[in-house]
Amino acid sequence: MITQGKAESDPDVFETVLCESVRRSLDRNTYGNPSAVEVKVTKDDSERVRLCNSKEEISMLSKVFSKTAKIWEEAYKSEAKFYIRDGEILGVFALTEDTDTVLPCSPSFQIDGKPVKMLELCLITFDGEPPIGCVDYHTAIKVLKQSNPLEKKGYILVRGMTKEQLTHLYNKCLLL
């Protein structure tokens, strides 16, 4: 994405990162019609990177980012439920069909001073059938990050997945 050897403060780098961020946000955005925004980036005399766009273009960018923020805000925040399996504490998170879900990237828990070593992600559908199955949590997050770039502050936003997508995730995790 960024040409090797370029400085972080280079306007081209900022433009590339901004455009990629907007593209990724729009790729998963199903709210409204697609729009194109040209982003002009310059460096001022004090070496600060600036956007040089009209108020209308900045407003459109703001709408894109506010829609993403709203999705984060309205998404289900999955929390671990704890069980005992084979004498060990097991933490289980749920990922449910057609539900935007926020999951922690690297959760860490202790119960009664004991670290929770086993974490799973349970893949659930709405069709009245039993869950698709449960997979190793860290493996699932790794797979989700490959196709789902919406991540911030140690959390990943998983946009609502179909039963077929959940089944694909399950099968892919079993192979790793």
Structure in words:
By secondary structure, this protein is an alpha+beta fold. It has two domains: 11-74, no CATH class; 76-175, no CATH class. It is 35% helix and 27% strand. The protein has helices at residues 11-27, 55-74, 137-147, 163-175; strands at residues 41-43, 49-51, 76-77, 81-85, 88-96, 101-104, 110-111, 114-115, 118-124, 133-136, 151-152, 155-158. A four-stranded mixed β-sheet has the order 3-6-12-11, sandwiched between helices. Strands 4-5-9-10 form a four-stranded mixed β-sheet. Helix 3 (137-147) crosses helix 4. The radius of gyration is 20 Å and the shape is elongated. The chain starts with 10 loop residues before the first helix and ends with a helix. The model is unreliable at 28-33 (pLDDT under 50).
Topology of this structure?
Elements: H1 11-27, E1 41-43, E2 49-51, H2 55-74, E3 76-77, E4 81-85, E5 88-96, E6 101-104, E7 110-111, E8 114-115, E9 118-124, E10 133-136, H3 137-147, E11 151-152, E12 155-158, H4 163-175
Parallel strand pairs: 3-6, 5-9
Antiparallel strand pairs: 1-2, 4-5, 6-12, 7-8, 9-10, 11-12
Helix pairs in contact: 3-4
